[in-house]
Each structure stands twice: as C-alpha cells, then as structure tokens.
Specification:
Length: 137
C-alpha cells in the first residue's frame, strides 16, 4: 500500500506540471496573481487568507437574480455560473474589505470598479461588463 502511494505521488510530481498547461496572468496588486489551469483561476497569494462574500445581483437596486460569492481575500476569480457580463449591483459582505470588479479576465485591465460594504445599487459604466473580481483589504 505504501509503495503504491509513493508511486502515485511520484507520478503526480513527475507529470502533473507537463500535463496541465498553465499561463500566468499578472494582477494589478503586487501580492496577487493567478494561474489559469483547466479554465479555473488558481490563486497564488502572499500571506494569510480570510474568507469574504461578494454579493452580486443581476439587476440594479439589489434586485433580480442574487448570489453571495464566497471567496478568499486576495484571490482572483473569473465569474462563472452565468455571472460574467451580468452584474448590475453588488456589495462587499462586511466592512473591512472591498471587492474590485474587472471588465477583463484575470483581474487585470484598466476598467474596474471598487465595491465596498455599503454597496453599489448600480455599478454604473461597469453594468453587465464584469468578468473577474477579487476582494482585498
């Protein structure tokens, strides 16, 4: 059993990097970047991590479809589950952190909006343009 486990771990160490293509995407923050693996953002972040909630709504004034996106502070997330290009209002779950919504994948690009715990009943020019986000202090 132990020999099988060692062989399995050795196989993973040997071949996993070659089998999974990854591209690095730099972020706007100095301590965050993501690695795109099989279509999902895998975060690489410095320091300890706390959990955050980014509440998003499909319509303005906190109406329509709603979801509380549970995330780890400092990680970049690509919007999935029908949320890409669909957010019209949003709120960071509690004070102490904010969430930044970006118009490009990988939490990069010049077009973004910061969302605080007080919320934004309308994300303005970012309406239906968000593709990625991260929450940060």
């Amino acid at each position: 059993m132990v020999a099988s486990l060692i062989t399995f771990v050795s196989l993973l160490a040997c071949c996993s990097a070659a089998a999974i293509p990854a591209e690095q995407a730099a972020d706007t923050s100095d301590n965050i970047h993501t690695s795109q693996i099989l279509g999902y953002n895998v975060p690489v972040v410095d320091g300890a991590q706390d959990t955050a909630i980014f509440d998003v709504w499909q319509d303005i004034n906190y109406s329509g479809r709603h979801e509380g996106l549970v995330n780890t502070i400092g990680y970049c997330y690509t919007l999935k589950n029908g949320w890409a290009n669909s957010i019209s209002s949003a709120r960071a779950g509690s004070s102490g952190y904010r969430c930044t919504l970006f118009a490009q994948d990988g939490c990069k690009g010049g077009f973004y909006i910061d969302i605080f715990s007080s919320g934004s009943s309308s994300v303005g020019d970012m309406n239906d343009l968000g593709k990625s986000y991260y929450c940060h202090y």
